[in-house]
Write a structure and sequence with these properties.
ribosome biogenesis
């Protein structure tokens, strides 16, 4: 203790308080009990009490030092145009920024890859469910057919279900085709060269052509016209039985 006091007397300098800015005080009174906390009441093993005692002591020092600084006309607030130089250079900060950016991009790529894997997994699951449903429907259909063949059931409801499902698929495909329409290339050609009209089925009979018999010629239809040879020309080759009789006669 004597050595500490001797060292303190050697180091101690008689300077003004504004040069030293040292404040020694107790703790701020507890707002709950409205009384200063006793040192003995603080348990040093209790981290929360110990930190709170340090906090109240710092508050007491601030409340004592601020009025003295204002009295000495010492500014205690940072000015609006205060500029503090950064501890790290701009090059170092640029490297850190690039590092953070590359890390963020890597995380985004990883997240996208994870989403793609999840989508593929979900699509595969949906496809598997559709295949299982089709196999189940096929199995039920075969079982129903077997029961009907064996006479165990006389209901043909499964045929109606199959027909309605096929009709629904055809309607869906037709609606898709109608909605789709011609592509851009076909539309451009139609606009440039014009639309030639319907080609398929143009030679089909209509009601008027079916009832019109003015161009009908019976001799031509029955092969009786000139140069056709009549009935005999039609039967140039005898039938099979006639040919067999001719062979037997020849023998």
């Amino acid at each position: 203790q004597d050595g500490l006091k001797r060292c303190l007397s050697e180091l101690q300098q008689q300077l003004a308080w504004v040069e030293r800015l040292d404040v020694t005080s107790g703790q701020v009174p507890d707002p709950i009990s409205q009384s200063a906390s006793n040192k003995d009441a603080v348990d040093p093993e209790n981290d929360f009490q110990r930190e709170m005692s340090f906090y109240r002591q710092a508050q007491a020092a601030v409340l004592e030092a601020l009025p003295r600084l204002r009295k000495l006309q010492v500014p205690t607030r940072r000015p609006d145009d205060y500029f503090a130089e950064m501890a790290k250079s701009d090059q170092q900060m640029q490297k850190i920024r690039q590092k953070l950016k590359s890390k963020q991009e890597a995380m985004e790529r990883s997240e996208k890859a994870k989403q793609l894997r999840a989508m593929r997994k979900y699509g595969k699951k949906v496809q598997t469910e559709i295949l299982q449903r089709r196999q189940k429907e096929k199995k039920n259909m075969l079982n129903a057919v077997k029961k009907y063949q064996k006479g165990l059931s006389d209901k043909l409801d499964f045929l109606d279900e199959e027909q309605t499902s096929s009709q629904g698929n055809k309607k869906g495909n037709a609606s898709q085709r109608i909605k789709k329409g011609p592509n851009a290339k076909r539309r451009y050609k139609n606009q440039k060269f014009g639309f030639g009209g319907k080609k398929k089925g143009s030679k089909w009979n209509t009601k008027e052509s079916f009832n019109d018999v003015s161009s009908f010629r019976s001799k031509v239809a029955h092969n009786k016209g000139p140069g056709k040879g009549g009935k005999k020309a039609l039967n140039k080759r005898p039938g099979k039985r006639a040919r067999q009789k001719m062979k037997s006669r020849a023998r």
